[in-house]
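User: Teach me something about this protein's shape.
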Amino acid sequence: MADYVISCCSTADLSREWYDRREIYMVPFHIIVGQDDIEDIIGETITQEELFRRMLAGEEAHSSQVSTAAYLEHFEKLLKQGKDILHITLSTGLSGTMNSAKIAQSELSEQYPDRKIVLVDSLSGSSGYGMVVDCAADLRDAGKTIEEAREYLEANIYRFNLFVLATDLTFLIKGGRVKPAAGLIGKMLNICPFITVTRKGELAVIEKVRRKKKAVERLVQYMEEKADGGLAYDGKCFISYTDKETGEEVKAKVEEKFPQLKGKIEMFLVGGVIGVHLGPGTAVLFFMGKERDIP
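Assistant: First, the predicted structure itself:
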């Protein structure tokens, strides 16, 4: 049995059942909707439908990263079990949560000198971040030491691919990802932007396609171009969504083009933090493949 545990934040957008089955310990971000401060545990503290209903009704919504105090409490519970911790964070290109984790790591290293907390930047978000965490669980279960797991993840971190298909531009415009004028025209012309993650772990719009059907096809083309082995890809494939219909359309098209993945694709809800920024009408595709080439 491994002498360390895998830990992450709720922004990995995996299900409670998945965390439990893979023995992954999660610490939640918070979302603030109107006057309510809510732990980012979609389906338990708030449903995705309720979150978007309130956002579309005009309530202000934003996210709050894990505090140093929350990390101290989370980490100490695990250290008291006599385990080291491999904690993987949301991309530093999207959040400052790594800094809070480092402060907690430093404080606890003095109190628990025989234990270690190893931090890894996922350079990703949503279930792409979750895929990094899931890979860490695989390495642990295969008997890799905490340092071997860290080295593998850091050496392969750019191979975790993420492509976002957005069909509703409302909150991308509000968050500044799409300029208002371009967004208005985009809505009128049914334009769907594609977003990926750069080598810095930041989000970048890389292409815009008109009409949803063509956009789904283009999303799967990205996977064909980037995935290990092309259409013969048989590795991990996760899809997260704020719009189940779009998520299912992407899944069906991936299974059609990648026969080795039929019945093996994992589907997850986009959590509150990522959902606040993407809004409804979004599906995100994750897989292992060529290294990211956008700086």
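Now, about its shape. Residues 126-141 form the longest helix (16 residues). The radius of gyration is 19 Å. If you'd like, I can walk through any region in more detail.
User: That's plenty for now, thanks!
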